[in-house]
Design a protein that fits this description.
With about 100 residues, this protein is mainly alpha-helical. The protein has one helix at about 5-100. The longest helix has about 100 residues, at about 5-100.
């Protein structure tokens, strides 16, 4: 290899090395910027997830209260209906006994 070719290749190789070093630094800078952006997005998501979790917790508590209220109301109405049917059944039974005693 002659001196001129050798000098050209050394210069080209040096230029490529500088470009490579520049690209490596650019990749590092981009990675750091991407990481910062990701951290901001992740924190925002954490806040959103906390808000959703709090909403779910509040909704669950409210549903528990509604469930207890509905259960209590159903039990009260069932007891009242049962009482009405029991009274009506006793009256019907008494009327049937009266009719039988007349026969």
């Amino acid at each position: 290899m002659d001196g001129e070719t050798r000098a050209y290749l050394d210069q080209a190789l040096g230029s490529l090395r500088q470009e490579f070093v520049g690209l490596r630094q650019e990749v590092r800078d981009t990675a750091a910027e991407t990481r910062r952006h990701f951290d901001v997005v992740a924190e925002s998501l954490r806040q959103d997830i906390r808000a959703v979790a709090e909403g779910v917790g509040a909704t669950t508590e409210r549903m528990d209260r509604v469930e207890a209220s509905v259960k209590t109301e159903m039990e009260e109405r069932f007891a009242a209906t049962h009482s009405i049917f029991r009274t009506a059944f006793h009256e019907l039974r008494r009327d049937i006994d009266d009719v039988r005693s007349r026969l």
